[in-house]
């Protein structure tokens, strides 16, 4: 099995809405009706519903946006750009969430056969400009649920890349174990950060997680 990650430059409604509301859009599910239309479920932290609608409508022929506490829920039917169809038609399985950001959409997928990776990329590139891509063979030791959990952390806790990196390495190094496997000095040295910097990012990550868990 292979892991495929690629990004495309995008001017679609999802990317436009992300750019103009300064908030990432996380696509939770896509139902490919045919090669021309997709049904989409997405969320964003933005509460600018008029702003979201004004940019999403360029691609959506049906659209509903509702505010759900900390997120806006987007459900609708949109024009397909052939990406999901290219993945699924060629034996790929999307890993959700997908991400729409400032002029870029990022996709992840599991692919059963190595030769299908190039087939998928070729199919996607017929209709889209691929900015970057990467693929790797997944060994038995790789945890697919952990990969998905890492992606979901963006949605659940809105951690920055640095916060996720510090938190992940703190966990791996036994910082949260009892007795503690490594202290802050070792963690900071491993990350090549000053101790106050490492502690700052660690505390920020912990605060965001606690806020989400106990927010009401």
* Averaged pLDDT: 87
Could you give a short account of the major beta sheet?
Answer: 9 strands, antiparallel
**Low-confidence region ranges:** none
Radius of gyration (Å): 19 Å
Structural class comes to: alpha+beta
Shape, principal axes of CA atoms: globular
Q: Spell out the helices and strands N to C.
A: EHEEHEEHEEEHEHHHH
The helix fraction, in percent, is: 40-55%
Which oligomerization state do the chains in this entry correspond to?
Answer: single chain
Distance between the termini: 41 Å
Number of helices: 8
How many beta-strand segments? 9
Our estimate of the beta-strand percent is: 25-35%
Short description:
With 216 residues, this protein is an alpha+beta fold. It contains eight helices and nine strands. Strands 1, 2, 3, 4, 5, 6, 7, 8 and 9 form a nine-stranded antiparallel β-sheet that branches.
Q: How would you describe this protein?
A:
The longest helix is centred in the C-terminal third of the chain and has 20 residues, at 195-214. The mean pLDDT is 87. Strands 1, 2, 3, 4, 5, 6, 7, 8 and 9 form a nine-stranded antiparallel β-sheet that branches. The chain is an alpha+beta fold. The chain contains eight helices and nine strands. Strand 2 and strand 3 (37-44) form a beta hairpin.
């Amino acid at each position: 099995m292979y892991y495929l990650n690629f990004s495309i430059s995008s001017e679609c409604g999802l990317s436009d809405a992300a750019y103009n509301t300064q908030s990432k859009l996380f696509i939770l599910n896509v139902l490919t009706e045919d090669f021309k239309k997709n049904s989409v479920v997405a969320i964003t932290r933005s509460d600018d519903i008029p702003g979201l609608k004004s940019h999403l409508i360029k691609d959506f022929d049906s659209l509903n946006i509702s505010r759900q506490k900390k997120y806006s829920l987007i459900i609708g039917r949109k024009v397909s750009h052939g990406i999901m169809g290219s993945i699924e038609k060629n034996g790929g399985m999307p890993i959700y969430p997908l991400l729409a950001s400032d002029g870029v959409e990022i996709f992840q997928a599991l692919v059963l056969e190595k030769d299908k990776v190039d087939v998928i990329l070729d199919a996607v590139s017929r209709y889209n400009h691929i900015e970057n891509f990467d693929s790797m063979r997944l060994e038995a030791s790789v945890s697919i649920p952990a990969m998905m959990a890492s992606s979901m952390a963006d949605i659940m806790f809105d951690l920055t890349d640095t916060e996720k990196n510090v938190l992940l390495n703190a966990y791996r190094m036994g910082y949260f174990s009892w007795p503690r496997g490594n202290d802050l000095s070792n963690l900071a040295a491993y990350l090549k950060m000053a101790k106050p910097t490492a502690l700052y990012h660690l505390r920020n990550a912990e605060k965001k997680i606690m806020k989400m868990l106990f927010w009401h």
